[in-house]
Amino acid sequence: MRTTLELPDPLFLEVTARAAQSGIELKELLTRYIETGLKVPEVQSVTPRPKRAPLPVLFEKTPSASTSPALTNAELYAILEKEDIEQLRRAWGMTDETP
Q1: Are 66 and 59 in contact (CB under 8 A)?
Q2: What is the mean pLDDT of each run of 10 residues along the chain (99 residues)?
Q3: Is 62 exposed, middle or buried (0-12, 13-18, 19+ CB in 10 A)?
Q4: How far apart are the first and last CA of the chain?
Q5: Closest CA to 14 of 30, 35, 32
Q6: The model scores a pTM over 0.90
Q7: Which of these, 47, 51, 46, 7, lies nearest to 29 by C-alpha position?
Q8: Would you state the pLDDT for residue 37?
Q9: Sequence-separated (6 or more) residues with CB below 8 Å from residue 71
């Protein structure tokens, strides 16, 4: 039976070189490789991907639940800057009373 097989260039070059070194046709070498591969018990060489955890749910929208308004980028940056300043003050041993 005739079929088309696409191989990466480096693999194709290696297989054709081995066929030439062995003095056999490429078709015969590939047939031997496939037959040998089919005789070996199948081994899972690739580690299966772990199942992904579901994404966390931050808010469940229910008719009775109130949502907080979205903050602007400027408001978010202000919150982050305040937290950074507080963290630096603690690291330097400064209290809120210290200027």
Answers
A1: no
A2: 89 92 92 87 67 73 65 89 89 69
A3: exposed
A4: 86
A5: 30
A6: no
A7: 7
A8: 84
A9: 79
Note the pLDDT of residue 96: 61
Contact 26, 16 (CB under 8 A): yes
Extents of the domains making up the chain: 9-39, 71-99
DSSP 6: -
> In the prediction, which pLDDT does 97 show?
59
CA distances from 50 to 44, 45, 46 (A): 15, 15, 12
DSSP class per residue in 14-81:
HHHHHHHHHTS-HHHHHHHHHHHHHHSPP---SPPPPPPPPPPP-----TT---PPPPPHHHHHHHHH
